[in-house]
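INFO  loader      accepted 1 record
INFO  loader      residues=155
INFO  predictor   begin
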Amino acid sequence: METSLTWSIAESLTKAIVEHRLMPGTKLPEQKLANHFGVSRTLVRQALFQASQNRLIKLEPTRGAFVATPSVEEARQVLAVRRMLEAGMVRNFAAQQTPSRLLELKVHVAAEKKVMEANDVGQRTELLGNFHVRMAELMGNEVLAQLLGELISRC
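INFO  predictor   done
INFO  writer      dumping tokens
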């Protein structure tokens, strides 16, 4: 139960960071987060640690947790890695494509169009970011899907 709560809190924080509801440098007070999620500070601390493993949150001794502020160079490096992975993945996907996989991607693109038309910024960010993650999942490569998800979160 605690593990799923910790994961849920970490996912909520990740989503807020990716959707720019929590901006780089924002302090993340444990007690405030514990009150918000209705959990103990221990669970919040575990979730912050989990998010820090993906470099989305920086934990500073005696100061607390902050939304990470990546350097311009780090951002360039993350984007370069994404381009390399995504280009190779697209080539592999095209070589292994099936009608059902293509249909799944068409459904995803249709959902992207729908949220773009509705101007739903949160959903748009999530769906656009997850296109390549979804492609990796359809290929059955969970390691690639996880790596892409982490890289996308860091963008």
